[in-house]
Amino acid sequence: MYNVILFLLVPLKSIEVELEVRDHVATVVSTLNYENKEDKPLEAVFVFPLPGDAAVCHFSAEIGKTQIVAEVKEKQKAREEYDDALSCGQQAFLLEESDRSPDIFSLSVGSLPPGESASIRLEYVTELAVQADDGLRFCLPAVLNPRYQFTLCLHVTSVPASLVPYSLSFSARVSSPRPISKVESNCSLDPLQYLNTDQTQATVKLAAGHKFDRDVELLIYYKDAHQPTAVVEAGQASAEPGSLMGDPVVMVSLYPEFPQSVMSSMASCGEFVFLMDRSGSMVGSSSCPCSLKDTLLLLLKSLPMGCYFNIYSFGSGYEHIFPKSVEYSQQTMEEALKTVEQMEANLGGTEILQPLKHIYSQPCIPNQPRQLFVFTDGEVGNTKEVIDLVKKNSDSHRCFSFGIGEGASSALINGMAKEGGGHAQFITGTDRMQAKVMQSLRFALQPAVVDISVTWDLPKEVSVTVLSPPIKTLFQGQRSLIYAQLTGQVGAVAEGCVTVKYSLAGHPSENQLHFSLRPAEDTGLTVHRLGARTLIRSLEMDERESRGQQDGGVKEKVVKLSVQSGVSSSFTAFIAVNKDNSEVIQGPLVRRNIPTPCEFISKEKTKTLSISVFSFSTIIRSSCYFIFVFPAAAPEQPPRDPLLHLVSLQEASGCWLLDPALATALGKTNKEVETSKPEKVDLWATILALLWLHAFKMDAKDEWELLAMKAASWLRAQNGSNMIIKE
Questions:
Q1: Measured between alpha carbons, how far is 347 from 343 in angstroms, rounded to an integer?
Q2: In what order do the strands lie in the sheet with 136-140?
Q3: Which residues contact 453 (CB under 8 A, 6 or more apart)?
Q4: Domain spans of the chain?
Q5: Mean pLDDT across the stretch 615-632?
Q6: Above 80 in pLDDT, residue 388?
Q7: Measuring CA to CA, how many Å separate 58 from each of 100, 526, 535?
Q8: pLDDT tens-digit profile of 191-236?
Q9: Least-confidence region, from 48-62, 211-225, 519-533, 542-556
Q10: Counting beta carbons within 10 angstroms of the beta carbon of residue 76, is it exposed (0 to 12), middle (13 to 18) or buried (19 or more)?
Q11: Which pLDDT belongs to residue 532?
Q12: Cα–Cα distance for residue pair 241/235, rounded to 1 Å
């Protein structure tokens, strides 16, 4: 690959990120340092990603010795104030959330005079997601992939990671009531430094020389991670009592543990719909397209007999293997796998809305609960519309979503799973997609949890207002968070109790947590801001659902809560104007779009030279640069994974056939596997396959456990459990 670049001067010089993790909540402080080395005043515009569930709670600018703290205002008023300031020759700063997706922000730094420097401080708080291996995931989205439909409205400028003209430094401090086992990352880290003997506090930072070729992902592991907790945070002294910011707020973290007798029984029915992203952008993902094919192989081999399934794929349009979901059998499984083998990432753009509408338009099959699995890199421009559609159909299905590759939209992936009552997973770097996907399939096969209710037992002088939406789903060992406002007089030794009741496979169950109402120390307003963000997101969705109806009060509620809490929303923005500077900035203002790193790959496969053009829009002139990409020779295909080879030979019923292909997969000759075979050769073949899995692939048990359970069930059905296996 060869690149020929003509670069413009870019005023953003460095980004410094400080992360503070307290148990499963993170506070992130980013400092962006700008310098104008041109001979004209500049307006710098930087469009960048943040976690979709982040609560942006502080924005300030430092110019020389002057610090300006931004205020939250209604978005249109903030934009007008920003434009008025620039037209008057004043310095102004505007931070706003995209109208289409809550994980995209635009930062405008206005009227930066020649030779002037400015530091922008941005702070947000976010929850850490629980992973399949119980690690807590923090992701700093360094990569902003082009979002289809976005570039025209947001002027996103993207360049290959190696060409980003600013640096990143990143450090993290972790503290928890429980010991910290380890911290891992997809990037190179300096060694973890423990700060005390019980290993409950530690620091870590990125190794020198980090490149912008990926998101920065941290996986934090605690001992005894499944302990339920409750944190009560005192209200803000200056806020009005009875208001959200003036009252204490509690954050309850629950980890439901289901009875083993119930968990051992997997569902033998269901309609499983797999929706695969085959847009051109998937070519650049480190996990695709081969891993998607391997994952579909494992999924199809692990489905229970008696269920129904279908596979959709989408890009600019969409396709499906069957006109409607079909019953799972050897014939339909083979037909689906044959089609999957021919799939390529060649369907153009990422238009997920239309295939979703088609899936939801299909009538549900009686007694076959619909389970939707969505695989995408999340490069869509209508995130909120997609999430709203999933929510609208949440009563008829569960949605399990998978974000693939660097820069996958966390707002889209988490939002679909949350509103669809499912579970979200992210696959990046060297992650094995199969293990994470199979965990979600286990969740889908678990008995559905119904009749979920939450009750509070508090002192009579204390009332509770729940800020979180109702809990829609519970999964074994997965965390559920509840935020609630506590109003009234709390005694020094007062205690509260929260109880979650539900029904699982016809068995009533409950989980209970007793907690002290005494506020925790040194939490600042983190819990309040997360609670406010949770309520704001719920109200925003209510507003979108009520459009066209006579309910104009929801937007006003969001704006009021956003301003009161200092947390951003889709209807507000942070605005700061340097009114202390009496010197009017002279000269025409030049606009510079700050380039954002992207996973750089041509959106369409070509066999000739491809040319990509990225434009820097300016107010007084336009410039551009060209990147010439010469396609590299196709790499040789690696030999097939022995595990996947063996899995590919399994029948839909769960058994294996005794033939030369199985012998090859087991690393034996046909003569060796036929030695001492019983009369029922398929029983023998299936036992040999299970023995091989347990002997050689225990490290990948999460991937083959379900299909092995199906094989064991087949053996029992054949009265093969009492067979004597000869040495």
A1: 10
A2: 129-130, 136-140, 216-222, 180-185
A3: 500, 501, 502
A4: 1-225+568-596, 229-254+449-565, 266-445, 655-719
A5: 32
A6: yes
A7: 22, 12, 18
A8: 999 999 999 999 999 888 776 667 788 999 998 777 788 889 999 9
A9: 542-556
A10: exposed
A11: 95
A12: 8
List, in order, residues 6 or more apart from 564 with CB less than 8 Å away: 239, 243, 244, 245, 532
Mean pLDDT over the full length of the chain: 81
On whether the CB atoms of residues 268 and 717 are closer than 8 A, the answer is no
Nearest to 274 by CA among 343, 329, 347, 325: 325
φ, ψ dihedrals at 665, nearest 5°: -65, -35
* 266-445 shares the fold of 1-225+568-596: no
Encoded amino acid at 694, one letter: H
pLDDT digits (tens, 9 = 90+) for 275-288: 999 887 665 554 45
Nearest to 284 by CA among 57, 604, 34, 587: 604
CB atoms within 10 A of CB 344: 12
Looking at this protein, which amino acid is placed at residue 24?
H
Full-model pTM: 0.80
Using omega within 30 degrees of 0 as the cis cutoff, is the peptide bond preceding 141 cis? no
636: left (phi over 0), alpha (psi -120 to 50) or beta: beta
For the segment 299-306, the average pLDDT, to the nearest whole number, is 94
Res. 724: pLDDT tops 80: no
| CATH architecture for residues 266-445 | 3-Layer(aba) Sandwich (3.40)
Give CATH for domain 229-254+449-565. 2.60.40
Q: How is residue 552 annotated by DSSP?
A: -
Q: Say if CB 351 and CB 316 are below 8 A apart.
A: yes
What's the CATH superfamily of 1-225+568-596?
tricorn interacting facor f3 domain (2.60.40.1730)
* Axis crossing angle, helix 383-392 with helix 410-419, rounded to the nearest 10: 10
Burial string for 288-297 (b: 16+ CB within 10 Å, else e) reads bbebbbbbbb
- Cβ burial 456-475 (10 Å sphere, 16+ → b, else e): bebeeebebebbbeebbbbb
pLDDT number for residue 6: 30
Residues in the chain, overall count: 727
Tell me if 604 sits within 8 A of 316, measured CB to CB.
Answer: no
- Crossing angle of helices 701-717/681-696, nearest 10°? 160
d(CA 577, CA 562): 20
Burial 562-595 (b: 16+ CB within 10 A, else e): bebbbbbbbbbbbbbbbeebeeebeeebbbbbbb
Burial class (CB in 10 A: 0-12, 13-18, 19+), 316: middle
| Integer Cα distance of 179 and 175 in angstroms | 9
pLDDT of residue 155: 47
DSSP state at residue 206? B
Stretch among 354-368, 400-414, 604-618, 661-675 having the lowest mean pLDDT: 604-618
Residue 566: per-residue pLDDT: 95
Distance CA 60, CA 53 (A): 21
Write the DSSP symbol of residue 249.
E
**């002192």: which residue's tokens?**
459
d(CA 289, CA 284): 9
Task: Give pLDDT tens digits for 23-34.
Answer: 889 999 999 888
How confident is the model at residue 612, as a pLDDT? 32
Q: Which of 563, 638, 623, 553 is nearest to 592 (CA)?
A: 623
